[in-house]
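Example S7 (structure tokens).
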């Protein structure tokens, strides 16, 4: 091989090496971009989790599911039921409950209210711009989840002022805890048993939400700062 041929081979080899280096660099850069995008997406998921689920603070000690196969203590009927939630230092929230859409949830809530179960309990989880959640207490009975994901038709949407049942991951795990939606939350539709709406007193809900100082991104309120439910009256 002549010197000229050797130089030409060397040039071709150098050219191939440059092409390989450029290609590898491009692959590495693309991988970095993809990883960064995944990281951002996961970070966003973590931030949004608090607004995706309304979970109860603890599982009931016993599970006694009330549903079509278990008789309740009274017939709920289909007429709307009016109730008042009296919150210490804030005022009264008046609601109309709808047994035509969620008869089990309405009857459970009414029975607990009439028994005085809610008296002295609190709103323990509050996220301004989302909802206020309360009613955590010792209550063994759980009820059937009345929402489409659980095979139950319920046409009440989670718009501002709607009251709905909190639950654990299980569909039939709602017990006594409820939440009132402060701002429209359509991502909850079909997954939680909405059973009524506020007719007056949304300014109370707004004030409770505005005053809240959660200790974490899940809306947990320190025990000493939780607004107290003096009573829930069935009108």
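Recovered sequence:
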């Amino acid at each position: 091989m002549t010197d000229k041929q050797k130089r030409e081979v060397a040039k071709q080899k150098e050219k191939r090496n440059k092409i390989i280096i450029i290609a590898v660099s491009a692959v590495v850069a693309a991988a970095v971009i993809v990883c960064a995008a995944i990281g951002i997406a996961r970070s966003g998921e973590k931030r949004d989790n608090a607004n995706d689920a309304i979970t109860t603070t603890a599982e009931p000690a016993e599970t006694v599911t009330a549903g079509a196969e278990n008789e309740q203590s009274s017939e709920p009927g289909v007429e709307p039921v009016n109730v008042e939630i009296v919150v210490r230092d804030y005022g009264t929230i008046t609601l109309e409950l709808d047994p035509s859409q969620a008869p089990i949830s309405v009857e459970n809530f009414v029975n607990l209210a009439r028994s005085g179960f809610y008296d002295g309990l609190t709103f323990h989880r509050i996220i301004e711009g989302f909802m206020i959640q309360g009613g955590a207490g010792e209550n063994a009975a759980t009820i059937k989840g009345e929402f489409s994901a659980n095979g139950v038709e319920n046409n009440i949407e989670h718009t501002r002022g709607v009251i709905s049942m909190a639950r654990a991951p299980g569909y039939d795990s709602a017990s006594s805890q409820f939440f009132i939606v402060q701002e429209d939350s359509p991502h909850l539709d079909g997954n939680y048993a909405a059973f009524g709406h506020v007719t007056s007193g949304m300014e109370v809900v707004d004030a409770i939400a505005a005053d809240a100082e959660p200790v974490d991104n899940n809306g947990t309120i320190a025990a000493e700062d939780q607004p107290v439910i003096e009573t829930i009256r069935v009108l």
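Notes on this example. Residues 53-234 form a domain with the Cyclophilin fold (CATH 2.40.100.10).
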